[in-house]
Amino acid sequence: MASLFKDQSKLSQYRDRRFLGSQEDFEQALLASTTVYIGNMSFYTTEEQVYELFSRVGEIKKIIMGLDKNTKTPCGFCFVLYYSREDTEDAVKYISGTILDDRPIRVDFDWGFQEGRQWGRGRSGGQVRDEYRTDYDPDILLISIYGKAFFSMVNKLWYSPEGFCFTKLGIIRSGRGGYGKLVQRE
Ligand code: GTA
Question: For ligand 1, what atom is nearest to the CA of residue 122?
Answer without folding.
Answer: 23
